[in-house]
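Chain A, query sequence.
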Amino acid sequence: MGRTGLTLLVLGLLGLPASAQTIGSNMVSFLNGKVGVRVGGGECAHMATEALRVSGGEFVPSDLGADSPSSGHYVWGDLVTVISYASKKWTDSNPANKCQVGDIIQYGSAKFGTTTFPSKHTSVVTAVDATKYRPTAVLQQNYGGVRTVKAATVNVTGLTAGWIRIYRPRPRVDVQNVWKFTTVNNTTTSQAYSLMVDTSVISSVSPTAANTAGSFRIHKVTTDGTVPCLVLSNGQSLFVTTTKGLELYQQTTGSAGVRQLSQ
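Chain A, predicted structure.
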């Protein structure tokens, strides 16, 4: 087989990247099915990460770039625009660049009228207006003490403090022997697991109990072709499938088990 044939074979096995528009639509479909449900550990960023993961978007922070403009302000893909309010002036850094469904908003101490968002927050756009193509509705998690997915309206022209940065999901390029996946601990107590490649422990992790920030982890493992394995401290184990999510759950025996999420 020639080089072209080999390339096509590898691409066929790994899958071609989805378009940003397809990823966005799939993200919203996924999250609409999760309204009223906790995604990941209940944090706003967990919701966005899992939506990207199941929809073909890049979800590993190290592949998306350093936080911007400062630590804790996550980058979710390609920057569409920055809308800010400072010195009594509202600005849109790129008004001609249209937002679309599935774009991700990162908030920086944003305030809309009397509604104040946390200093760092994330939501996913579900609707835009028909003229300026700016977000009018979102899905979000961990807002107002609610750690499940819920819908909300947003009026970006009403920003009266802080800023929002709007990102376009970046199609994920899957590479052979690179394993990207997430884990969530849905048991009532903290757990411990090791990531192993063959007989070598490459990472030891201690996620906190369910519905906490530390219960959700993002992993990227590069191997020589050996499939990584997640091994719980009680010996329960499961081989990793790239781009999938793994759940630590309470078995009927009371001990923790590990299984792959359906999406």
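The two ends are 35 Å apart (CA to CA). Helices lie at 3-14, 20-32, 44-55, 61-64.
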